[in-house]
Write a structure and sequence with these properties.
heterodimer, A: mainly alpha, ABC transporter involved in vitamin B12 uptake, BtuC, 68% helix, globular, B: mainly alpha, two-stranded antiparallel ribbon, 4% strand
């Protein structure tokens, strides 16, 4: 029986899950309002690079997080403008956000590739080798706890506050909500920018904590896994968190399989998380017989006919 | 007090997409210029250099058109799939699997007649692309699994598979540290038309016309449009919408796979992680910008091919090649924004 280092695995799981969960939660909020944003990958990249650049130049962590979050949110407002105000195709616009975000972040980060970060979002308590779950939790950083707080708050806001109920109403049936006097454009615009801000925080977590450096295309498809997570979670915050833990576990487990004594090609092991994501998504959709819980109006631009 | 409301124009200009594209391109060049200015580069110098090195000579022009081939073929595949209102984000993976399929057949069979061999290899590429989209197609058609996410994630799986093959079973010992499979023999190289332009470009023209016919004129294209438009109408018209969607996906994947085959047989001559440099993603921009029109895809594909070559060569004077990608993406954003003004109008009405 090889030593499976359970606590190390748990630690890596939580870190990978935090990264995925924050961006997925943001996308969940955006989608709840009826706007589909396929630009998660691009938004995470923008947040990651701007946060990293600020951290290198100012060595001020708080400022770096703020800059990362705001710039990703600003970037997502392109999508909000094009789809909410100008009613253009959400799939196309979201895809450009991904392509543009990756290119723009590579351009911005060109001079920062390989630079060493002097500051890093530190763990609450510095424990070299955590031996129990409590110590693993303590060795997470502030953003992890922020993510838990965001999960609880989002769930509460969506279910119990007027703002949340309106947001869901807009996403379910824009036309009916409009006749009730809700401000469709404003709600969707805000929801899209909030989604961008969350993705930005996820990006900051990526470059200032998860892998403290910057290289091109370092998001490596995580943004797309976040989109799958929202479907997996049935547009519910807690279930999305559960999904994030599962996918985080896969991401943490796969590189460890070899040390556990499995004879596997490291190249084939790398594709496992993507393959498993597809399989899980397929099984889940079949299991639910297509009733995924998607907001009724998702992807359809709202346009008030001439009256 | 009067208020302003948004309304749809009753008559939309036939050339709206074309004008939007021009405006988008203008906006993108402006954005590119600003980025160049920030980097202390003279935009006029950079753009004229890009122009000169992408279309200035027979050699550079043929390079540009060679780059256009995968963009056009993958773009056509995306457009065909869009007839049934489905998105193919997996063209990148399909290009890779097309190339892998070609190499697999090349290793395992040998045909002495080289034109027949090339023909068979091209078909293998097409089939490889179709196989790549098989899983997303089956799951979409039968179970309604979101095809955007499955086709996209398939990209990562296929590129991972490529990296595995060229580092493992197919690794060419002569390539030393660079992971790549062995070169294919000269007998299966695609012949050139002029300069370095490969005959793949002729295939491209043929397929663009074919896709135009398929989409706009054929019975299958008509049925695809109905199947994609409304499920109820399709039932009334006796059209099997699922079957149409399934075929459209396979053909769409096949087009991208063929692009991979041509890229292998005319450009790289071996399987490596560099078979496609994001062609599958740029193809989405190309297809979307033209409103999924095959002839438009052909023309914009040629332009974007030149842009890619231009972007690659200006690296030598210290300008990032990402500028080309940013221009391509901004063109689409600009086009989307101007499309709004062609389809909507802001009317002033009296407040009741």
């Amino acid at each position: 029986m090889p030593d499976i280092q359970l606590m190390g695995l748990l630690n890596a799981t939580l870190q990978a899950a935090t990264l995925l969960f924050i961006a997925a939660l943001g996308e969940l909020i955006t989608e709840k309002s009826g706007i589909l944003n396929l630009g998660v990958e691009g938004m995470i990249s923008i947040g990651a690079v701007t946060g990293f650049m600020t951290a290198i130049n100012t060595e001020n962590l708080f400022l770096s997080i703020i800059v990362g979050v705001l710039s990703a949110s600003l970037f997502s407002s392109i999508h909000a403008f094009v789809t909410v105000i100008l009613k253009q195709d959400q799939t196309v616009s979201g895809l450009i956000l991904t392509i543009l975000g990756l290119a723009l972040s590579s351009l911005l980060g060109k001079k920062y590739v390989g630079k060493k970060l002097m500051v890093k979002v530190e763990s609450i308590r510095d424990i070299a080798e955590p031996s129990n779950i409590f110590e693993v939790l303590l060795s997470q950083n502030l953003i992890f706890y922020l993510a838990i707080l965001m999960m609880i708050t989002t769930s509460f806001v969506l279910k119990k506050t007027m703002f949340g109920r309106r947001l869901e109403a807009v996403g379910e049936d824009s036309r009916a909500s409009d006749s009730m006097g809700l401000k469709i454009n404003k709600t969707q615009f805000i929801a899209t920018c909030v989604g961008g801000a969350f993705a930005g925080l996820s990006g900051v977590y990526l470059t200032l904590s998860y892998v403290p450096f910057w290289t091109d295309n370092m998001t490596s498809g995580r943004g797309w896994i976040c989109l799958a997570l929202v479907i997996f979670g049935g547009w519910k915050p807690y279930r999305t968190a559960l999904g994030a833990l599962l996918f985080g576990f896969l991401e943490a487990l796969v590189p460890r399989l070899q040390t556990y004594g499995f004879e596997l090609s490291p190249y084939l092991v790398k594709i496992a998380p993507y393959l498993i994501t597809i399989i899980v998504l397929v099984i889940l959709t079949i299991y639910k017989e297509g009733k995924t819980g998607a907001p009724g109006n998702i992807g359809r631009p709202f346009f008030r006919e001439n009256r | 007090m009067n208020k302003y409301i948004l309304s749809k124009k009753t008559v939309v200009n036939d050339l709206a997409t074309f004008y939007s594209f021009l405006i988008g391109l203008f906006v993108a060049v402006c954005i590119g210029s600003i980025i160049l200015l920030i980097q202390d580069q003279n935009p006029i110098n950079v753009f004229s250099l890009m122009l000169k090195l992408s279309v200035g000579s027979i050699n550079s022009l043929s390079n540009s058109l060679n780059k256009a081939i995968p963009l056009i073929l993958a773009g056509l595949g995306i457009a065909i799939m869009n007839s049934v209102k489905l998105w193919n984000i997996g063209a990148e993976g399909q290009i890779f699997l097309g190339a892998i399929a070609v190499n697999l057949i090349y290793i395992n069979i040998n045909i002495s007649n080289s034109s027949l061999f090339i023909f068979i290899l091209l078909i293998s590429g097409f089939i490889g692309g179709a196989i790549c989209i098989l899983l997303p197609a089956i799951t979409k058609v039968f179970f309604g699994v979101n095809e955007i996410i499955t086709t996209l994630l398939t990209n990562y799986v296929i590129i991972g598979l490529t990296v595995y093959l060229v580092n493992g079973p197919w690794k060419d010992p002569k390539s030393l540290n660079f992971p790549a499979a062995a070169y294919v023999g000269k007998e299966v190289y695609l012949p050139t038309i002029f300069g370095k332009l490969s005959t793949g470009f002729l295939i491209c023209i043929l397929f663009a016309i074919g896709a135009h016919y398929l989409k706009e004129k054929s019975v299958f294209g008509y049925e695809m449009r109905i199947a994609g438009g409304s499920a109820m109408t399709a039932i009334y018209a006796g059209i099997n919408a699922k079957q149409k969607a399934f075929y459209a996906m396979l053909v769409g994947g096949g087009f991208a796979g063929l692009a991979g085959a041509i890229e292998l047989l005319s450009q790289t001559h071996r399987v490596s992680p560099g078979i496609s440099q994001g062609f599958g993603y740029t193809a989405i921009i190309v297809a979307a910008i033209t409103g999924m029109r095959p002839i438009g895809i052909f023309l914009v594909g040629c332009l974007f091919g030149a842009l890619t070559i231009g972007g690659a060569v200006i690296q030598t004077i210290g300008v990032s090649s990402y500028i080309a990608e940013i221009i391509q993406a901004s063109t689409l954003i600009g086009a989307l924004i101007s499309q709004f003004f062609f389809t909507y109008q802001i009317k002033e009405v009296e407040d009741a």
